[in-house]
Amino acid sequence: MKDHEKRELIDRVTAIATEFADTQQLRARIASVILPALEDKVWFLLYDGTSVDGTGPGEYVGRTTDVNVAKKHWKKTTESPYCTGKVVIVTDTKVTVAWRDTNWSEYGHK
User: 31 and 72: one domain?
Assistant: First the structure.
């Protein structure tokens, strides 16, 4: 989390604490802001391209945090044997390339 994001988070928690002091909603309101900030962020790096034999690194075309966009891109890359595209999944703790057995629900896909 970047410094400005930390400041914004603290500002939001402070505002909630002020507004909901002495109410039963205080804990739930603070949790609704803090818990998403603590979750492991996931980036999906998207690569695309083609080659005569389907090998090569692919060309970086963008990134997303939306698992549905990432899965759609991955499906597109598997349609052609000449595609060099892929999806690289990056979290704070690991870097993985999406394969046929990737559990997309682990990253929020429904």
Answer: no
pLDDT at 109: 59
Type of residue found at 22: D
Distance CA 31, CA 55 (A): 47
Residue with tokens 């603290």: 10
Residue 103 has pLDDT above 90, yes or no: no
Q: 61 lies in which domain range?
A: 43-101
pLDDT tens for each residue of 36-63: 777 768 899 999 999 998 888 889 999 9
Q: How far apart are CA 98 and CA 104, in angstroms?
A: 9
| 12-to-1, 8, 72, 90 alpha-carbon distances in Å | 15, 6, 34, 28
Distances (CA, A) of 5 to 34, 37, 98: 12, 9, 29
